[in-house]
Amino acid sequence: DAEVVLLGRSNVGKSTLMRELTGHTFNTGQRPGVTRSPNHYDWTSEDFVLTDLPGFGFMKGVPEDVREDIKTDVVRYVESNAEKILVGILVVDGKSVIDIIDRHSGEDEIPHDVEMFHFLQDVGVSPVVAVNKMDKVDDEDDRLNDLAERLGMYPPWKQWQDTIAPISAKRGNIAALNEAVREHLHEANRDDL
Ligand code: GDP
What we know:
Blueprint lengths: L2 E6 L5 H9 L16 E4 L6 E4 L11 H18 L3 E9 L3 H7 L8 H11 L3 E7 L7 H11 L13 E3 L8 H18 L1
Parallel strand pairs: 1-3, 1-4, 4-5, 5-6
Antiparallel strand pairs: 2-3
This protein binds guanosine-5'-diphosphate (GDP).
Family: Belongs to the TRAFAC class TrmE-Era-EngA-EngB-Septin-like GTPase superfamily. EngB GTPase family.
Function: Necessary for normal cell division and for the maintenance of normal septation.
GO molecular function: GTP binding; metal ion binding
């Protein structure tokens, strides 16, 4: 079966989004850093498996080496299953993502989100960035243009609606994400013909 994976830093709203996508209840706000193995679920109304991967990046009270291990596990999972993974949904927090990226951009530092985005591309998995918590963002277009630029796509972001999907998981506004993912799945089906 075709697979879609969900990945992102901790606290971006991954569990909330999983609940919206699958109808299952997940432990939102669960104790961070508790290494979870990948969870597989059926995406409502579509014919593929959705895999939830553990959150990575900074988590309060979780030592750096544990965080590194979690990220390594996520990368390994995607690498070893890249063949059947059609789309990687990278969930980010629209409210803070630009500040976090800029704070961690330096000569020998690549922000997690930027790194993961390029990693997905490198292993042949189409990235879709689910920009969550947009209900808390006022200057929507500016924010999304900034994000596009930092991920190496020329603004305006609207050119990239199959890659950048503004959502609010908590409010159930995830149409842009459904649309973007569907676009990639149909593309993949056409390639199979
Ligand atoms: P996870 O650690 O990535 O699984 O994140 P959770 O799903 O546990 O969500 C972390 C926090 O963000 C919780 O307090 C959620 O209620 C909140 N949250 C999730 N989605 C949204 C959203 O779309 N908008 C807002 N404002 N908050 C959200």
